[in-house]
Amino acid sequence: MSTVTVPPSYSSLPFQDISVSHVPADSPTASKVLIVAFNRPDKYNAVTENLLTELETAYRMIDQDERVRAVVLTGTGKAFCAGADLQIGFSGLLANKESEESIAKYRDQGGRVALAMTNCTKPTIVALNGPAAGFGFTITFPAAIRVAWSDAKVGLPFARRGLTLESCSAFFLPRLLGLAKATHLATTGATYAASDPLVSPLFSKLLPTPQETVAYAVELATDIAENTSPTSTKLMRDLLLYSPGSPEEMHELDSKVFISMVGSKDNMEGIKSFMKKKKPEFSGSFDRESVPFWPWWAHAPRGNGDAIAKI
């Protein structure tokens, strides 16, 4: 993994299309919880190439910043994210269709952001404070937790735009909702309220206002940041996401991961803090030494004998 330089303060970074703020906002240096927000409110936070680049850059920094423990992802203004900015369109992507080779090499930029979020050792809590469509909806799927304003409108309008699912959403969505509901959403391309039974299982909590949604997400992220081990939460997310195909294989894997964490620094700190009834002081970095076989999916054999490529 390439090393990136983490800034003293995220709020001072010269981002144009996203904002990153500390919790509390007046903290002069990076805090345990950061709020990352789409920041094109006059365009309903519609996505541009630059916005995606900035979002991926922010996640690369956060991943390697020991001071940060959790991220809240939300939108500035009345929308979460309206998806691609159709006034700009997709003409800039046409060069990737010039040959079979260029098509094979093309990687959806939204997918790069989704993978940056997935691979980040700090969990993301989405605060869906307003409408989310297309990428604005699919980018919520890799998050650890999603909470939403109950009246927020969400949709996957790709079928109505002559496009297809992107940002790794065809992987995440059926795992989150089940194949039947995922296929329904993709096929209709229709818009639904977050409280609709078709999409509400995506959200661990529905709240009555956008403001309460963001406040709850920050409260939840703060609790996670102050009381959980980043190594434990990352490993459990990966166990759920990169799981083998049978109970016996999972037994082998989760036993290996569990015993590797027994006696680790975070394990000892977790037990000590519990016994002394005080807040734990977990390390802010992912403990690769305790799990040298991580990422296990990078080397797991597929049915055809190929290795699963590391994300």
Give an account of the 3D structure:
InterPro entries: ClpP/crotonase-like_dom_sf, ECH/Chromodomain_protein, Enoyl-CoA_hydra/iso, Enoyl-CoA_hydra_C. The structure is a single chain. The longest helix has 18 residues, at 210-227. With 311 residues, the chain is of the alpha/beta class. The model is unreliable at 304-311 (pLDDT under 50). The protein contains ten helices and nine strands. Strand 2, helix 1 and strand 3 form a beta-alpha-beta unit. Helix content is 36%, strand content 12%. Helix 5 crosses helix 6 (179-188). A six-stranded mixed beta sheet has the order 1-2-3-4-6-9, sandwiched between helices. A three-stranded mixed beta sheet has the order 5-7-8. The chain folds into two domains: 18-226, 2-enoyl-CoA Hydratase, Chain A, domain 1; 229-298, Lyase 2-enoyl-coa Hydratase, Chain  A, domain 2 (Orthogonal Bundle).
